[in-house]
Amino acid sequence: MLAVYPGSFDPVTLGHLDIIERGCRLFEKVIVAVSKNPNKSPLFTAQQRMEQIQSCTHHLTNLEIDAFDTLTVHYAQQRQAQVLIRGLRVLSDFEYELQMAHTNASLCGSIETVFLATSNEYSFLSSSLVKEISQFGGSVTHLVPQNVAVELKKCFTKNP
């Protein structure tokens, strides 16, 4: 069974990687689909985000990394996926994600949404939080892969 794990991944966090690895154990193949959302202003380009994910998931043989700029459910249809993977951290995530799952089902009833609860140690973690911490000079090495921590530091280091 083919599953798509969509998101902005700006940047990818250890929480995202937890969901990716667990998804790869559950499904024959997982596509991590990096969203190119024109309504957002990402810190990293879609290509950079794909490379960040690739560099810390090379050990997963049933994983593909791609980018898309359509409705998620349309992308999943194009790729002939049967499942969308969504991670849940807190109760407020569930309300939003359930609404999206119902919306996607109304657009394409043949694609199921599977929710994976984030592991406890990542339940507070978000890409926005990581960027804010990094922007103010805090260490994010315990929140993101090493390569991403280095790239974040470069983005937010002020030149004299």
From TrEMBL:
GO terms under biological process: coenzyme A biosynthetic process
Pfam families: CTP_transf_like
GO MF term set: ATP binding; pantetheine-phosphate adenylyltransferase activity
EC number: 2.7.7.3
Top EC class for this record: transferase
Claim: Acetylation is one of the keywords in the record: no
Binding, substrate: 8, 40, 72, 86
N-terminal signal peptide: none
Compartments in which it is found: Cytoplasm
Record site: Transition state stabilizer: 16
Binding residues for ATP: 8-9, 16, 87-89, 97, 122-128
SUPFAM superfamilies reported in the protein's UniProt record: Nucleotidylyl transferase (SSF52374)
Main location per the UniProt record: cytoplasm
Record family assignment: Belongs to the bacterial CoaD family.
Subunit relationships: Homohexamer.
Full protein name: Phosphopantetheine adenylyltransferase
Gene name, Swiss-Prot/TrEMBL: coaD_1
